[in-house]
Amino acid sequence: MAFIPPKEAYSGKVFAVSIGIAPAEVTFGGENVLPFHAFEGIAPNRPIIAYEIQDVSPADWPEIVQKPYKDISNDSVSWAKFCQDNLKAKTLALRLIGTHPDRENRSPEEAAKTVRDVLSAISIPLIILGSNHAEKDASVLVAAAEAAKDKNCIIGKAQEANYKTIVAAAMANNLKLIAMSELDINLSKQLNILITQMGFDKKRLITDPMSSALGYGLEYTYSVMERIRLAALMQNDVTMQPPMLGDIGMYVWKIKETQASETDVPQWGNVEERGITWEAVTATALLLAGAELLIMRHPKSVDAVEKMIEELT
Amino acid sequence: MALTGVDIFKLLPKTNCKKCGFPTCLAFAMKLAQRQASLDLCPDVSEEAKQKLGEASAPPVRPVTFGAGDKAIKMGEETVLFRHDKRFVNPCVFALEIKDTLSEADISNKVEEVLNSEIERVGQRLRIDAIALMNDSKDPVRFEAVAKAVATKAPEVPVVICTFNPQAAEAAVKLFADKKPIVYGVNSENVEAMSNIAKIYKATLGITTLGGGLDKLSDLTEKVKSLGVADMVIDSGARKAKEIIEHNTLIRRAAIRKNFKPLGYPIITFAQREDNLFETLIASVGVAKYSSIIVISSIEKWKNLALFTLRQNLYTDPQVPMQVEQKIYKFGEPKSDSPLLITTNFSLTYFIVSGEVENSKVPSYLAVMDCEGLSVLTAWAAGKFTAAKIAEFIKESGVENDIAHRELVIPGYVAILSGAIEDKLEGWKVIVGPREANGIPAFLRLRTA
User: Fold this and answer.
1) pLDDT tens-digit map of A9-43
2) Cβ neighbours of A212 in B, within 8 Å
3) How far is the C-alpha of A101 from the C-alpha of A131, rounded, in Å?
4) Is the pLDDT of residue A268 over 80?
5) Which residue(s) pair with B413 in the sheet?
6) Is the ipTM of this complex over 0.90?
7) Interface test with A, best of B278, B302, B364 (most A CBs within 10 A)
8) What is the CA radius of gyration of chain B?
9) CB-side exposure of A210: number of CA atoms within 13 Å?
10) Alpha helices in A182-242 (DSSP H)
């Protein structure tokens, strides 16, 4: 019996999205095959990893992932420059977590200033994220979008509860936009439709189906991503064709497995290696499921995943 | 190609005798076509039909049992390419490589590590399942000695015997007779000798073409089958991540969609790398993308935990929610005045809520109630998370002995239950917590401030 490779013919294609300003502009998406299936189609761009930084010092991050940013992370600008210059980051993600009402409750104006300061200090593309407080984000992200006008940044996340103001701000300031819904392909699709109905170009969207850490619901994110990608490629569903985001660091670095010391849980082994591995394995799994853009925290995890992307493409 | 119900019907006796338990031969044929019935149920089927149908109705990826006794592992039997379609059936095996060039002490330590690798996670016991003995020395005598050491120290652990030398293979496999070992290293040069060994010692064969491509691999499995060995695992020679995805995907697709028998076997993947973190990622690619055996070079606890968890995540049944045990969980070192919260036992709910309780750094009790794996709102809507049931659970849990206060924090989404719970739980006060778990840290800190 002769073997004929059963190759798949796909009818759809993921939109390619470019962010930042040349020469530091990066592009992700654009493939017409399942993740890393270049043997049966084209995948012109590699997934991109963004280093996560914050507008406030990362006192809430576990010690292991605070350490690489010691001395510079109390200031967003020095932190951003460190990632760009020392870690050779291709992209940055600035999380305005300090605007959350339960945190420092910073004002939209303060957030906008941080965005301006970071943007003027770096040349690589920037992703601007709110604190995930739907109400507060609506005002914070509007101010942040104005501060990033025409810089070809990504802003997010627009959710069902607040998308209208954020979409309008992204449109007015010529930015790309993350649309996030909670672990459900239909909700993702619906939000993308609502956003494009406002006149937002679907080719400027990034879908965030909500990430989860290894061991904490990873299989849900994994399957939702696989289903979104299959809908985009096999059914040529244009509402599902924006590239996908895996916002990994914030989920991975708050679970017990990345924090509990070996003294407390001897059967889990070294906590530093465990934490780094946890972030890298989570990232690898989501890449295989279809994420084209990742937000991560630990430089060693990023390095390992970059190496994996290199080997996968 | 798979036979249709009508194709199968033509091969049946057409007597409608009902001995198979189905009303007609046609109904039985339809069930056979859907792989929901076994041909054994028909007492009158002809030998010719048996042979034809047996082949067509066999699962697309051959079931192969690896090892014997309590630690035997089932492999193969997979039916889908994507886990959301139907559950991935048999979780992949992690095998620790042990080279026969290592010192006696190192070998002994490695075997010990395998034996002590078992941990528990969400009610499942997970471990490094197997050992892969590598004949790096190329010396059959040395290989036999190492195999003997392993067989003595870990008689229960399934073993992959890796060598291209039939003499070395036979020397080692003897020590695992009747334990269903795998002899890996069958290529076009040694195929006859290896097949003989497999028949004598009832071993599974590991077929490899090392870069020869999937068509060569198919030729080789057909050859082995014609020599009388049915149980095989296959290695396309893929070592780089990109090739692992390409080969494993094509193999799984050929088996499942085309019912292509020559590649319908479990896949063995060699993931060993210099860089241990990177090796963990290569192994992760194998877990996600269809490998049935993944050979790794070391098994540190942190690495095992990550790999076990990934395997557990991807091999869970997407139709059945994962559940955690109903009990009172403790976070930090709660005292008699520490807060008590309640939620349901859907694993995702539990993980998110417990993560946030942990995050708050406020020592707490979390009562996790069995609601058949439903989340809070779903369980409430389904009548499983009701005032009466909550009251009963709290009383029976014995938590009243641990705490001095009588305050129960309920999820914000079921605020409506607070009055009813206070009615059923005499002397208790119900406090409505945040709707979303991410509000828990602020909530707990405020309450204990």
Assistant:
1) 999 999 999 999 999 999 999 999 999 999 999 99
2) 348
3) 9
4) yes
5) none
6) yes
7) B302
8) 27
9) 16
10) 185-197, 218-234
